[in-house]
Amino acid sequence: xxxxxxxxIQAPSIDFARYFNALLPHWWKIIGLSIVVGLATLIVMFQSxxxxxxxxxxTPPVDEKRQNxxxxxxxxxxxxxxxxxxxxxxxALFKSxxxxxxxxxxxxxxxxxxxxxxxxxxxxxxxxxxDRLLSRKKQPKPPGDWDAIRAGKERMKxxxxxxxxxxxxxxxxxxxxxxxxxLTHYLEEAKSRLQEExxxxxxxxxxxxxxxxxxxxxxxxxxRLYTLYGQEVxxxxxxxxxxxxxxxxxxxxxxxxxxxxxxxxxxxxxxxxGVFLLACGYFLSRRK
Length: 288
What we know:
Structural class: alpha+beta
CATH topology of the largest domain: Bacterial polysaccharide co-polymerase-like
Shape: elongated
Strand content: 5-15%
Strand order of the largest sheet: 4-5-1-6
Helix content: 55-70%
Number of domains: 2
């Protein structure tokens, strides 16, 4: 029997000394360029303001999670009962453009976000030298609703924990106290909007039930309508309890003590390392 010859394949070895000797004459260029780029990046990063993030956690009230027996009866008459608040409903509310516009119209959110760029006297954004160079308009331009919507989408973050049944809301701004203040305004305006919708719905339902009472002759049906009318009045009264209506605040907004970005040292080190590797590759490619 013939024995099969075994062929051993050896991995090629890398001669690091050869590459080190090739880079040795240019080490001062590589290190110097990396340091210059790192310092320049650090200087540019210091021009960017700190960004602080305030966070709040909310959940639907316990009472609203239980099914009301009157809801089925009202729905049978064609009345909009407007079911209990759910986490998904609260998520849609805080992501809505209307809520953001309400906050930016009612409160001084632009003064917190733009700081020195905002002109309180005119209510507009101060134009920079580049704006004056590229455009003839020198008057401060007041921010509009779409500016508020874009700012809200960029700085507002809403995440849902369906397993725990709560909602986490955060807002970012150049001010620690300002982030907590704007997020508090979001919570207040969300409650106000839910109350307004509840009052409007209750008023329409009461008018509808009153019309049905006037048209109904059957005594049992009239008694049932009177009961529904009383329940609607009770729901309207409960909606005035602002603390427990709409949602409960588990963690209220607090001014953060640390910034979330920018990571100046890490960014500068990343740029310096990238330039170092590129410079090494450049000088190695030049060597024959």
